[in-house]
Amino acid sequence: MLCDLQQIKIRAGGCWLDYTCMDYHYETQPNPSPISWIMHNNPHWFHVLEVGANHFAELIAPWFLLIPIRKVSITASLIQVSSMVPFVFYQVIFALNILGVFPNPHHHQR
């Protein structure tokens, strides 16, 4: 699911490829939280770091889930889940992020 979301972002191009999407993301949210104002006023380098971390968590980490070494797949799962945690705090609509945690393969391993 996350890999598909990231591929849509990459195909849309523009701001996701030049790492500027987070510069204006917080002011264009449909239901921003009070923390959104703080996040929006962070410096540009912080927003570049956010986009880079997002690319890693949604485009690269899912491929590590395919490696049959348990520690690697658990680490990849934790990277994906931890990338969703900030959304709970600065977005009012966080239900999609909560739903994204449940199909995570780490939760289904025995």
Task: Describe the structure in your own words.
- This protein has about 110 residues and is mainly alpha-helical.
- It is about 65% helix and about 0% strand.
- The chain has one domain.
- The protein has 6 helices and no strands.
Tell me the series of helices and strands, N- to C-terminal.
HHHHHH
**SS-based class:** mainly alpha
Contiguous uncertain segments of 5+ residues: none
Count of individual domains? 1
- Main β sheet profile: none
Terminal CA distance reads 21 Å
Provide a count of the helices.
Answer: 6
Q: Percentage of helical residues?
A: 55-70%
Which helices and strands appear, and what pairs or packs with what?
Elements: H1 2-12, H2 21-25, H3 34-40, H4 44-64, H5 70-90, H6 95-101
